[in-house]
Amino acid sequence: MKIRCEGKEDPPCRRCRNFRLECTFTQSKGRGDDDEGEQARRRIASLEGEVTGISHTVTGINQKLEDLGVLLQRLAGGAVGGGLPRMHQHSSPAMPHHGGHLGYGGPMDEVSPAHTHSTTHPTPPTARDLAIDAITGPMSNSPSHHPSSSASHHYTLVGRSPAAMNPPWTGSVPPEAVSRAIPGRTHGGEWANGHPPPSVPGTDSLPSLVREGTISDEDDHDPLESSMQEPFRELTRKEEEARLRAEGHDPAVRRMSHSRNAEGGAVRSSKRKRLNDEDDPDWGTSPIVEKGDPRANAQDPVTAGFCTEEEGKELFQAFFKHAHPFIPVLNPREDTWENLRQRSPFIVTVILSIALRARDGCGPPSDLTKKCRDSAEDMAKQTLFSPIATLETVQALTLITSWGEHAWRTCCHAMALAVDMRLYRCLPYLYKIRTQSRKPDANLERQMPLVAGARVWLALVKQSYEMSFNHAQPIQFSGSLQERIPYARELLQHPLSTVYDSRFLVSIELCAAREEAFRPWTASSCQDLSSVDDVLRKVNKGIDTCYEYWLNYYHRVGVPSDHFLVKELGSQKAYGIMFANAAAWYGVHSKNDAVLLSAERRQWVQSALRAAAFLTSSIGSGRQEKDSEFGNHNFHVAIVATARYLIRMCELIPDAADLNQVSLDIDRLLLKLPFYPVVPFAESLRRTLAKARDQGVLPYTSISEQADAAM
């Protein structure tokens, strides 16, 4: 009986399966037929995917066309009414609002329309995509944009004027579509004849064409990630932007590099941009965060009409010649009169007020001094409530802290601004460039903001230490020296650093050596005497070690022994020894108590007395007398406090000093004090000296009457 196969469409057939026979249908099917079927199925699946993608693309195009139609209706309505309707501005945090052209401009003008924002996006572009486009330019031969892929197509915007930058785009219509939709507008954002048509006035400064709140950029930031690091930042940033915009600032200004051209000051980019380019992709993202424009709503004394330009230049040069070495937060080679006037009226006003302060001395302040001081203080007050934060602003506040009164409060504010700007990251970032970049010396001009930021941070750390020690207040943002100023000594090897940068390091390291003995949280009566002795041994050794290192450094780099920095090194060591060993005086109120001191403690207090005598003689008539009238506020207050402390120590241990020489040095200091702006402190020193002489502690000298009359 012949068994025929049945069910050809589903081999093996039913009969062959039942009888467990080899089905002829299965035998007739070859391997080639199976491969062809599989390939056909794959092609069908691929076509289905392409059709789905086309469907999504068409949907996106339709949405864009609808938005474009609404936009054209608004433009038509504005033209009929004689202008565009008034709309709220809404800026993305990553883009500046310069009120310039709508087109991309710059390098993007050279890209054909086919390379503009691709229509393969299934949805309208996000704010992040548009921000990346505005910074790096559109990616050629790429259907989409991604932040990680933009680095290789980075376009440097340094040197372009703010008018060439682009306003933020917050809607769902690409800016180039708007540029093509406006008659006479070229793809690059320029008008064909160079001017907007007369029927649409004000188009050169179009605000954002989408009302505020139509698209939010909050979705670009993951709340989970933000909660792990800075949970409030994305929300408070919007408050800061609104305040900056209301004050006439660009709400999203970031520094790329200084511009030293003749036309303007610091050219700022539209975002905290990447410093790397095709030549060296190792630089990463700049750590400095800046907000606002230091030139907005401010005038320097010359522009305000307080003084002539000749007088302003004279005061400016006097500051850099005599006062700047005390707090060298600026670079005289780059921070010139013309450059600083273009970059920051605030810092120019502060500089002139400092020079005027030294010129007035103990006399009444001149009208020009009052005007400059009041103007500088007004600009400083604005930074208390405005979120503006720029390098020039912090530099100016640093100078105000050094030469102004109430320095503790100003120092705290300046330090808070520096932390907000992330200036503490400049030192490790520079170290990374020097050690890991393939071309660390390429484009040094772009590293200038980093060096300036590192210099300002060191100055503020120095001031924070000194303010805390002088006022017995806790140290701001305390931590180990390696945490606060990592790779600080390496800064001196940078090509853009100056020898005066070492002044900050000397002060910081000497203060750090004293830090263990500084205990503002604990009263002296509650401290264990043996532990205090252990700390003083360590502190004195640390001060000597630090002094020897920096003295050898100055000799190694060729700094002469009579240089300001070498003289200041000796003075700072003396201040460290004098104030650190003051703890050894605990329990001493009279000569009898001083006799009971241990040999080691007596040695420490004698070192403090000798250090005070050295300071009084060197500043009163010795190696530091020159330009001492230009010294900062702490410089003048410290020498008066030192002289009064010296008189008291001579009363307790008179055999440890030459009393005649001490008395003569103090008289010479009194003759110098009228040139210092320290009238109340000078009178206090005069009374203390008169009392000591009445009690027989110090003798009169040949110039005592002259010194007393000078006060």
From TrEMBL:
Chief location category: nucleus
Chain intervals with Basic and acidic residues compositional bias: 231-253
Organism: Vanrija pseudolonga
MF-aspect GO terms: DNA-binding transcription factor activity, RNA polymerase II-specific; transcription cis-regulatory region binding; zinc ion binding
Keyword DNA-binding (UniProt): yes
Segments of skewed composition (Low complexity): 140-154
Name of the protein in question: Protein priB
Residue ranges, annotated region (Disordered): 88-129, 135-154, 162-298
PANTHER family: FINGER DOMAIN PROTEIN, PUTATIVE-RELATED, ZN(II)2CYS6 TRANSCRIPTION FACTOR (EUROFUNG)
